[in-house]
Amino acid sequence: MPVKEIPYMRSLFLMDDEAGLLTIKDKILYILLVIFLLTFYPGHIPAVNNIALALFSIYCFFFYSSFREKFYLLRKRKEVVAMALFYLLHIVSAYFSKDQKEGFSWVVVRMPLFVFPVSLGLIYIKQALKERIIWVFSIITTLTLLICTIWSVYHTIAKQDVTLLYNDNLTILTDKQSIYIALLVNLAVFGLGYLLAIRSRVISNKWLVYGSLFILLVANFLLASRIAIITLYGSILCAAVWYAIQRKKFRLLGLVVAGMVATAVILVSLFPKTLNRFRELKYTDYEYTHKGVESHFDMVITADQWNGANIRLAVWSCGWELVKQHPWLGVQLGDKLHRLVDVYAAKQFDFAYDSRRNMHNNYLDILVTFGITGFLLFFWGFLFEPLRQSIRTKDFFGILVIAAFMLSFIPENYFDRSMGNMMFAFFIAFIVSYREPVAKKN
What residues make up the domain containing 252? Predict the structure, then answer.
């Protein structure tokens, strides 16, 4: 069937009527972004994705807008200054680290924290392009999860092993951890919900959106990320409550709640192993010297195991000791893991020592590394100010995205993974980029 006969493909390939609202430079930016997203998910091609990232960033910085416009936007978007300073703090911290080689290796891993804010964060993306970017991200994410699910179902049947449907097994084709993919699934759901809410014209087939939402909701459950599941359904409930209060449609709120309960019952009945991820929360006690095995979603959960909950509590306690020892400037970037492992050794926490566990908390990692000074710079630039501006402009997509990252940072250290840095920096810079650069009217 020719591409032009498929409405949703027309919008993806800039062949729809709404594409006429985009300028040539918008279309080039869109194409470069699509290439970046298409190379983001597949495993084993990080070099290709880095090239795509470089092309996208260079175009944003040098060609999309003039430097005069960028200086104007920089005055309006002071959070970008804080973002750049936070990354420069990495370079300074690496230099003053005892293990400079380790420190500068983290500087490279966290480079997206600088690249996206000073490129994407210093251009102005209009509404038409914003909607199309959200649309293509959501569709690419949906297609990725659909392919992963089909692959997992096939191998589950072939090997008679139902565990291949869950968690990291579901994302093995992408060679990426399920917890990061689960967050992207949530962001795609928020994106599609936003486009439906504003009745975006890039959506020419609502059934495609409903089908995509179905795929994403099932994938969210199979990925078995506690924080992602809580974030998604909590966001849906909060949005429903807000809408019901604003429009006084409490019957609709009741239907949404009933639908969520029914969906939960169906998903738990079909995919019961995800519940094991929540059963772990019953067992939060720990002893550093305990030699128990680590629980898994395919195991019977017992109190004598290390699990996702008590491991984190134990690691956080060790990390907090470092914060108390170096509250203002931290232990420096190249030394943070060495110092944390030393605490493990002192407490005979062999389970964490042997695997060299990281902080498992993005906020704690920043506090340990840069102290309160660096944490405040990060928090204001990357989270507080973008969130405040999103609330001010009633940007509900931005609010949901930032809130999702803030919650996801509690159980995981996103800055210890190249993927975590890339996805966080991209979305925050994107949210900044489409904020209209005009003074607030009185």
Answer: 130-271
